[in-house]
Amino acid sequence: MTPPRRTTIDTAPRLAPTAAGHPHGEGTYVEARTQGAGSVKDTPSVLDLLARGRTMCTPSLRSAVARLAAPMDTVGAYHFGWIDRDGRPAAGDGGKAVRPALALLSAEAAGAPAEAGVPGGVSVELVHNFSLLHDDLMDGDETRRHRATAWTVFGPAQAILVGDALATLGTEVLLDAAVTGGATAADAARAVRLITTATRKLIDGQAMDVAFEQRDVVTVEECLEMEGGKTGALLAASAAIGAVLAGADDRVSDALQRYGYHLGLAFQAVDDLLGIWGATEVTGKPHWGDLRQRKKSLPVCAALAEGGAASRKLADQLADPQGRGEESEQVLAARAGLIEEAGGRAWTQDEARRRHQTALAALDEVPMTDEVREHFVALAEFVVVRER
Amino acid sequence: MTPPRRTTIDTAPRLAPTAAGHPHGEGTYVEARTQGAGSVKDTPSVLDLLARGRTMCTPSLRSAVARLAAPMDTVGAYHFGWIDRDGRPAAGDGGKAVRPALALLSAEAAGAPAEAGVPGGVSVELVHNFSLLHDDLMDGDETRRHRATAWTVFGPAQAILVGDALATLGTEVLLDAAVTGGATAADAARAVRLITTATRKLIDGQAMDVAFEQRDVVTVEECLEMEGGKTGALLAASAAIGAVLAGADDRVSDALQRYGYHLGLAFQAVDDLLGIWGATEVTGKPHWGDLRQRKKSLPVCAALAEGGAASRKLADQLADPQGRGEESEQVLAARAGLIEEAGGRAWTQDEARRRHQTALAALDEVPMTDEVREHFVALAEFVVVRER
Predict the structure, then answer these.
(1) Which residues contact A125 (CB under 8 A, 6 or more apart)?
(2) What totals of helices (H) and strands (E) does chain B contain, helices first?
(3) Which residues pair with B15 in a beta bridge?
């Protein structure tokens, strides 16, 4: 049982840029813990953006899920947190819904009202949750958002079926946007292309992740490609889909996709750092979770690529089948030390900063109001700067 | 381990219309066995049609599967029968490929060359194989087309991932058709709508099938709805997608979809009869396969709906948890007798005939050359008239 990280970005801040508030992210990353909890900025405007995304997209999302044949409608509603396992209405945690928030902003970036992005927000959220349902089953994860995963409650067949259905609905809602007059047929078709390409990259990324589990060494490039697929592709689509539905040209769409893609890689770099050095909520001590699973995350790949003494010692340890999954706290702490000594931690911190900056730079290529730009910047900080 | 039936129509003839050769299927269905093997007609033209579909669609199909990230490309190639489990090229049995053959005919029905239907043929074959990969895993089926199913060779995660990827490719190849100039963007978008709707109905049908396993009674209407989803929806899309890509109007598309839909239900009715009374290749005796699994297939649902003495006795037996899956040949033969006594066998035979006739009647609404019409009629007979 592992914490649901890789494919979700719904966690709280930890790393913070010191040059707070600078819209182009020139600040260097330091650990939030050294600045105290006060450095964490869940600015009201970000929470408003997320709430707006949920409020505007959830009705369409619920009516899409309600279209499914029984009992898939129930399984879907459970997965999204709308009902509990006994079918009673629940004010569940369906995640922060960063993707719908991005899709609405994306429409505004093209000069359209946020409403124009709603089918896009619903689509990316459907595809995101398709991947969660299937990934949880494949990875054997038993909890997500503090609840039992759908496959543990309703069985593997339902998790497969409902995942399949959500992916299909993700295309249907975009085609419907053309029928109901919210978008032209041509723009809806472009949005379908966007989500279809992203979905296939998402699947490619998950396939690479599964394949890496069988290998002792993964290159940094391979790791970035995997994370670009698993996390970058759908965030890229989320950031562009509202603009595409609103008729924006390819130049605008490409720039917004770059913002989302690099934001995804920045998120993932931070997530990988937290996977090793993140502290548990209870003890405040590192849990070494990814090291326990010998996950080939970015800090590990970067450390293995360095080639010095610590790097070679790390490689030997990871190739040794003995003790796998049963290492003591002490052994894992020493291994984390090797990764740090080989530069894996510092490289990944730099990578997070680089990707965050690249994401923000992409925004400069799109003419948009200052307010919309500030919202994109605030959302990026919210996504990248997390505590655990 | 059950024989792979429900979602495949790749089996040999058994039931034959007596008024052989009449293009509108006025013949009544009798069991082929009473007429001897000579009544089975694998006409050369049907085999040519199937070969043409495979020859024209396989290159695009292979290049689509080759796009997948490793090892999904290998898993996909194994599933389609292009390589064996060790990666060596194989002249495998990838199925008869009825759906691609229909898609090419469909383009011709709209007055276009068969080539115009190729992206449609590739798309429906990808979606069909997505459903096979996932269904085999969900149903625990260990063989398909006389080979070990993909999930038994490569594990459940790969079967889930490759299924997901094939479904996504099914949309991508249609969008590509607009880019490469094979179809207008508007027609490609209509084809995407067609395949997306069919995919969701397919998933709904499989979900109903899975749900029915937990129930003692299923109505005839529910059974038909399930089979319409699992088998009718994708055959409907196959019969219309070539015409849609070639710019046919909705009237033509609707009529061709009706042909495919009712053809699917006719196939399924025959399949359900064979599931109970079909003889094994080795012994020539009925294997009672569906009765052993207490499958709520059409003959069973129809018998349960009849309400007489035999019907009530059957209902009691199916509701009795005792002996489930361990009934003797004698008990199963007696149960088959009850179904026949309650009219379930005769009703299903009539249903197959009705659906076959309705399918052929739909062709009358579409102006097409006599040759194309004859090919549709021959394919229908090939699909419906099977031996085991």
Answers:
(1) A57, A61, A97, A99, A100
(2) 17, 4
(3) B31
Choosing among B73, B131, B193, B223, which should be mutated to test the A contact, i.e. which has the most A CBs within 10 A? B193
- C-alpha A175/C-alpha A119 separation (Å) is 9
pLDDT confidence bin for B288, thresholds 50/70/90: confident
All domains of chain A, ordered by start, with CATH?
A: 15-384 (1.10.600.10)
Both structure tokens of B238: 């196959």
Query: What pLDDT is stored for residue B91 in this prediction?
Result: 80
DSSP at B7? T
pLDDT of residue B75 exceeding 60: yes
* Among candidates A175, A193, A200 on the partner chain, residue whose Cβ is nearest the Cβ of B165: A200
Taken in order A165, A169, A171, A176, the sign of the CA dihedral is: positive
Q: Are B276 and B336 in contact (CB under 8 A)?
A: yes
Tell me what pLDDT residue A12 has: 33
| DSSP 3-state of B147 | strand
B170: closest CA of chain A, how far (Å): 10
Cα–Cα distance measured from residue A359 to residue B274, given in angstroms and rounded to the nearest whole number: 60
Question: What is the ipTM for the molecules in this complex?
Answer: 0.87
* Residue A290 confidence (pLDDT): 83
CA distances from B35 to A4, A219, B31, B387 (A): 62, 66, 7, 12
Q: Which residues of B touch A (CB under 8 A)?
A: 68-72, 130, 134, 137-138, 156-158, 160-161, 163-165, 167-169, 171-172, 175, 178, 185-186, 188-189, 192-193, 196-197, 199-200, 203-208, 210-211, 229
In this structure, of A63-72, A76-85, A281-290, A329-338, the range with the lowest mean pLDDT score is A281-290
**pLDDT band at residue B93 using 50, 70 and 90 as cut-offs:** low
User: A136 with A144: CB under 8 angstroms?
Assistant: yes
Q: Round to whole Å and give the CA distance between A360 and A383.
A: 13
Angle at A304 between CA A299 and CA A310, to 5 degrees: 100
Beta bridge partners of A29: A17
What does DSSP say about strands B143-144 and B29-31: parallel, antiparallel, or unpaired?
Answer: unpaired
Q: How far is B16 from A350, CA to CA, in rounded Å? A: 72
In a 13 Å sphere around the CA of B87, the CA atoms on its Cβ side amount to 5
SS3 A235: helix
Question: Whole-angstrom Cα distance, residue A189 to residue A193?
Answer: 6
User: How many C-beta atoms surround the C-beta of residue B38 within 10 A?
Assistant: 8
pLDDT at B44: 60
The whole-angstrom separation of Cα A252 and Cα A234 is: 17
- Dig out the tokens for B160 from the structure: 């889930």
Cα four-point dihedral sign A249, A251, A253, A254: positive
Q: How far is C-alpha B52 from the geometric centre of its chain's CA atoms? A: 19
Interatomic CA distance for residues A132 and A126, integer angstroms: 10
Q: Which of B81, B94, B95 is nearest to B10 (CA)?
A: B95
CB-nearest to A69 from B134, B165, B208 is B208
d(CA B61, CA A93): 41
